[in-house]
Amino acid sequence: MRLQNLLVIFVIIALPVIIILSIFVNYQIDTARLKASYASKLIDATYDTVAAFQLNTNNNTYSSVADSLMEDIEASSNIFVKSLASNLGVAGASESQIMTYVPALLYTLYDGYYIYTPVRQADGTFVHDIKPYVYYTKTYTNGSKTLTINFSLDNYVAVYYDNGNWYESRAGYLETKTDDPRADGTEYKGCNITDADAINYYKEAYAFTKWFNDTVLRDFGTTTEAYSKLYINENNSPLQGTSSSFNDEKIDVIEKSINNNLFQAMNIYGKEVGMDFRAPILNGEDWDKIFNNICVISFMQGIPVGTSIFNDYAIITSTDNSMYVDENTLYFTGSEDGDQKYHRIGCTELKGTITGHNRAEFKIKQLEEDGEIKYTYPNPASACYFCMVRASSASLPTSQEEASWYSNLSERKKRETAYYTALGKQKYKLVKISDYINVNEGNNIEQNIANDKVEK
Amino acid sequence: MQGETLITIVAIFLAAILIGIFPMMAIAERNDDVAQLAVTTGLSEFVNTARTTGKITIQDYDALVNKLFATGNTYDISMEVQVLDENPAKKGTQTSSTTVGENVYYSVYTTQIMDELAAHDKYILKEGDILTVSASNNNVTISQMLKNFFYSLAGNNTYSIVGSQTGVVTVSGS
Questions:
Q1: What is the pLDDT of residues B24-72, one digit of tens each?
Q2: Is the Cβ of A376 closer than 8 Å to some Cβ of chain B?
């Protein structure tokens, strides 16, 4: 065969292969770009949702009331729709179309969660709506005795106990036995507490823990699963972030509850509309965010993207809300700051007598005065450039600074005292949905607990 | 006879281009495309992780470097964090209560971020900061080499694989 013929045959075979391969690879690249772009837009829309949620709840005095909170969540979910549609360039009439690819929005809150998911209407259509609030709850039974516990992200629990002959319900904070505050609340982990609200917090936590351990769990049965997992002692701390059987049980309850309800919500909707929606398997890092923060998780599934289908989710944690107190929500000022600044507790620029504050004090507030909108900051201190504006510098001191910081025991004790005082004070002031079950309120916590007991 | 020899020479020349160089260029270009894909997804994952966790960690940075270098090229990776400063806005509002003051950003660049990663294994970000990460290859890929040869492209600073990703940090890290 002549060389020219061989050449023609080669061109006929190779050229289409090369061209098709080239088109395919470019198509794959476009698909990957589009997927990355969608993932980024989903994160942005979820972030806007969290921002709206924070703005609404921080400016709503009644956000701890369930109905009011639902309004805030509904408002923030509308922001999600608008933001996602706008980011994807389909704002306007197509907004509802894009929501068909969003089988669920999950709001994991302080002691439970809401799922915003399509719900079937009377006319057979599906409209996104908020499902009833689900608590992080578990019920234990032992013969005729029933113990139901609502967990929260931190050491707050609501306990409903029925022993067959009497029943009692209380909600409060649990504290560890080894770290026993004095019964009168004036000392915690070796630090003297002087603030009235903080004292009340530690006093009530002590009495509540004692009641939970000795009245409820012992009566429920010392050989039960609840007793072995939940009895608070030096080896079983209820404090957030510690490794203990109490926290393992709590995490297990939260994970199972969210997985079950989310799976159900997404599956039902998927089957009804003929799409294959599935709750994704969240990884350890994702669960860690959920166990330690208030979060919004958005799911987007089933969008055809190039050669594949876009299925993704975004988890955004809320770091600025008034539903929850942890170390990140506490800011501190020092009496020896020349130019008044607020800091984190570990900042080397924090000097003099330390006072703790809730983060909300340093955030802008909007007021209406004589028909005019005015803006104000409850606390005029500005953010420290070492630990707040650029967090990296001072919250991570060099090893020398760190060594001197920790070797100075009086400085360390001063900071610990300021921290525990602020933590106790802010936790005590926080209003909880479950607080209503404490029928008897007042200064004598032991008496209140005794009075709440109801004989059948 | 002479004409046939000429055709044969032209045919051999064409065959060399079509059988050898053309497929080689095509494959080299596809190789760059695949590298481009790795850069696009790697940067996207890196930026999204950093902005949703509130920190750049040495592990995440190493994973990005490994992913990019696994394409067989070497890259210049540059990072910029635009740090949000709300203090001027606060001072502005305190001066005039009917207006909201303006926030400002100042930038921290690759060297400063890398110094902090070396010292503490992480660089903490806060909500509202803006993170931008870019990568471009600094070696000459086979595709570039062939293009330079055949199209007589000149200059050492040309690159064929480049990507950039940016995003607002959604959570304050710790």
A1: 888 888 888 889 888 988 999 999 999 988 899 999 999 999 999 999 8
A2: yes
Q: Is A10 within 8 Å of B51 when comparing Cβ atoms?
A: no
Closest-CA residue to B126 (of B86, B78, B164, B166)? B86
Task: Tell whether A337 lies on the interface with B, counting CB pairs under 8 A.
Answer: no
Q: How many CA atoms lie within 13 A of A221 on its CB side?
A: 14
Amino acid letter at A211?
Answer: W
Q: How far is A29 from chain B (nearest CA, A)?
A: 6
Query: d(Cα A439, Cα A437) in Å, to the nearest integer?
Result: 6
pLDDT category at A321 given cuts 50, 70, 90 is: confident
User: Per the structure block, which two tokens stand in for A252?
Assistant: 């297990």
Q: What is the mean pLDDT of residues A184-189?
A: 80
* Cβ atoms of residues A294 and A109 within 8 Å: yes
Residue with tokens 């540059």: B78
Q: What is the spatial distance between Cα B35 and Cα B137, in angstroms, rounded to a whole number?
A: 10
Q: A169 forms bridges with which residues in the sheet?
A: A160
A316 interaction partners in chain B (CB closer than 8 Å): 52, 170-171
The H or E element that residue A291 is part of is helix A284-292
Strand partners, A241: none
Q: Which residue, among B110, B135, B118, B125, has the nearest Cα to B52 in the 3D structure?
A: B125
Residues A170, A156: contact at Cβ < 8 Å? Answer: no
Q: Measured between alpha carbons, how far is A440 from A260 in angstroms, rounded to an integer?
A: 36
Query: How close, in Å, is residue A392 to chain B by CA atoms?
Result: 5
Residue reference for tokens 């050229």? A15
Q: What is the rounded distance in angstroms from the CA atom of residue A342 to the CA atom of residue A111? A: 30
> Which chain A positions have a beta carbon within 8 Å of B47's beta carbon?
40
Residue B115, both tokens: 């110094």
Backbone angles phi, psi at A381, to 5 degrees: -60, 145
Report helix, strand and coil shares of chain B as percent, to nearest 5: 55, 20, 25
Determine the Cα–Cα distance for residues B142 and A208; give it in Å rounded to an integer: 72
Inter-chain residue contact B40 with A25, CB threshold 8 Å:
no
3-class secondary-structure state, position A344: coil
Indicate the domain borders of chain B: 2-168
Question: Is residue A134 scored above 60 in pLDDT?
Answer: yes
Q: Mutate which of A286, A375, A386, A393 to disrupt the B interface (most B C-beta within 10 Å)?
A: A375
Domain ranges for chain A, please list them: 327-429
What is the pTM for the complete model shown?
A: 0.83
| pLDDT tens-place string over residues A225-268 | 999 999 998 888 888 878 899 999 999 999 999 999 988 888 88
For A254, the token pair is 């939260």
In the stretch 47-86 of chain A, residues with CB closer than 8 A to chain B read 47, 50
Beta-carbon pairs below 8 A across chains A and B = 130
Q: Are A162 and A445 in contact (CB under 8 A)?
A: no
pLDDT classification of B100: cutoffs 50, 70, 90: confident
User: Is there a contact between B170 and A320 if contact means CB atoms under 8 Å apart?
Assistant: no
